[in-house]
Amino acid sequence: MSTTEKVVCVTGGAGYVASWLIKLLLQSSYTVKATVRSPVTGDPRKTQHLLALEGAKERLHLFKAELLEDGSFDSIVDGCRAVFHTASPVVFSASDPQAEIVDPAVRGTLNVLKSCAKVPSIKRVVVTSSMASVVYNGKPLTSDVVVDETWFSDPVFCEQSKLWYVLSKTLAEKAAWEFAKEKRIDLVMMNPGHVIGHLLQPTANLSVELILNFVNGTEEYPNASYGFVDVRDVAQAHIQALENPSASGRYCVVGGIMHRHKASKILRHLYPTLHLPEICEDDKPTVPTHKISREKVEGLGVNFTPLEVSLRDTVESLKEKGFLSF
Q1: Alpha carbons within 13 A on the beta-carbon side of 179
Q2: How much of the chain exceeds pLDDT 90, in percent?
Q3: Taking the mean position of all CA atoms in its chain, how far away is CA 134?
Q4: DSSP designation for 53
Q5: Which stretch of DSSP H or E encloses residue 35?
Q6: Considering the entire predicted model, what is its pTM?
Q7: How far apart are CA 117 and CA 183, in angstroms?
Q8: 240 by DSSP, 3-state: which?
């Protein structure tokens, strides 16, 4: 691949997954044009970790872009070989869910794709969706169920259940596929589970807060299972989705499903002094752990980090950033 072909754009550059994606892209000699909300006038701590990355001085360029502003990405994606669209509002409740959660996710995704459609040099667009747009269809997730890329969340079920964030991811993905088909954009969709692992950014995002709240001394743990995945594996999967010519469609990016009780056992073994919840919040039978097929994503060349390692790295990182002290 020539030098000119190694120019890519990453939207939402200061985010959890995007920060790792930029780090790995720079390590692989890519030139990265990353969009952030306010690179110059905003809080410098939000971009400091990016500017400190190896290769950033030579090959990282930060640009201001607004997801909901028409044409905001036009000049930034111009000249790029590929675009990674990771930026999306992560909000779970709002007084007006349609206006505050659903519309921004859908419009933001379409705005980025509209800019990409104008640029002939762009060979592929990789969008960060979520397992949220895969598993919420009302079907019970029993232990014999294997979820794969053919599953889609049902917007009607999401709306009736008031799962606004899930609805936003589902509708944004649907809109992306329709637009890509119409404009003949080579689109690849990444659907990561609950992302954990080492933080590069200075803030604790919502997915890592799950572990933070768990470790911070709640009395009970929820009767719930989560599809965990290491942030480094998610970033690597995005790069494989670009570099592998045969990559296509959707990819479930989940290392494994784990009940909170098992996560608690692992953390207790790693950190015996931690005050971890030992009682389940209800006396119902333990929520079963379904399976998620890794066949397609492993076919891209992704090797998953053991969940024990990801949990340990999350806690160590939260300690290092000052969110935990023990």
Answers
A1: 23
A2: 74
A3: 14
A4: S
A5: strand 31-36
A6: 0.95
A7: 7
A8: helix
